[in-house]
Amino acid sequence: MSQRPLFDPSRVPPEPPPKRGRPDEPLSVRQVNELVRGALQAHLAPTLHVVGEIGDVSRPASGHCYFTLRDDGAEISCVLWRSALSGAKVPPQQGMQVIVSGALDVYVPRGAYQLIVRRIEPRGAGALELAFRRLVARLEAEGLTDARRKRPLPAYPQRVALVTSPDGAALHDIVQTLRRRFAAMDVLLMPVRVQGEGAAQQIAAALETINRLADALGGIDVIIVTRGGGSLEDLWAFNEEVVARAIVASRIPVVSAVGHEVDVTVSDLVADLRAATPTAAAERITPDRAALLERLSRDAARVSRAMRQRCAAHRAELRRLLAAYPLARPLEPLRQRAQRLDEALAALLRAAAARIRHAQHRVRDAAAALERTAAGTLRRRLLARVDAAPRRFELAHRRLLARERRRLDDWTGRSVRRGPERVIGRAEERLQQLMQRLLAGATALVARGRMRLESLTQAAAAHDPQHILRRGFAVVKDARSGKLLRSITDVREGLRIEVHVADGRFKATADDPAQPRLFD
Questions:
Q1: Tens of pLDDT along 372-395?
Q2: Does domain 9-122 have CATH number 2.40.110.10?
Q3: Sign of the C-alpha dihedral, residues 306, 307, 313, 314?
């Protein structure tokens, strides 16, 4: 399948002149203008290169640029469409000497011919210098060359991206310098054109691509925009506004190393760091391996000395602590607290025994009262429980003391393994808890004994015969045998009886209850 030929505007035939009728037939104004346009296109080359000075410049809201190109004796109107203006090296400025390339055309509605400019270039170094100064002034007005805006470079970058030509000497110089100074650094190359048509757009696009794909590439620490030396025209791609704004928009620090030390470009002014040469750029972003190793050696020696001094200080502090009383005799505080526990338990037992003896005295008094009231069965049961209470209390306290001594011995054994301070603190806390529990238990036991004794005393008082006698009852006994008279059948005529009342007793003689009396 054959490939279609590329479009060539020069091969397009000019529009045929409008058909005329008779030679003396009049023409319209538009027809005349179209005749002129056709003649120009038929007899002039499709591209003209014109040298001159830019005159009046107009840029309406449409974005197109209209200006005049003149020399000493004439001028011509020119049109630079918006699409062509965006790719111009420098925007048209009044008084600038330029070389424009384009085609001559006629604007039919007005009957004026004009040059349709497709390309505009400054003429000579003076024009380029003027364009350079004007762009720098505009960037300075925006604050883009201010040193406060520029960011510091990382001290130890791990990955650097190079925006340069793959065939230039700048790439070789940077790679050799990086290998010599810091071989561990990764280098990524973004190949671009560094001079000629479209070079500025490629450089700007490369900067945008690196920033967009930095995370996917594993992170970029710094970007170097570089090329070797050359004339002002050769370096002009780095003076383009599109490159300057791409460097400013980069979120990654940018180093500009364009040309030789005497060459200064717009990219140098807006970059975060300007290097005189590509080799200097590689040296500025990397640490010197020899100097770094020497510094690491000094730091390692300083850290080693500091660690030795600190270890010696800690060793002396450890010896002092080991020689101190609690650590030299770790079990001594525990033994002292164990002795205090024994003394406290002994004092508690003595106090409990005194309380028990006092309770026993009160119980004996109550038992004597019960003995007097002849409540024998209840008395014997209560006395048996009261007599057994001290023994039960003693056995319970002995078991408690034995259990706590076993726990104390267990704590003593663990203290050797766990350290004295922690065990001593726990033993002292446990000692306080035990003393509180023993005191609370003894107090509760005595309180319960007291309550029980009061209950028994009240029960015994309720069964006391004296209480019954005070209510009006009496106890009647046989005066001779002392037998209680419980039934009327026990009474006979003339029986001597002894009557017990609340405040004493008296004797009397009983009548036969079965014999009626004369005066009844």
A1: 665 456 556 666 676 666 677 767
A2: no
A3: positive
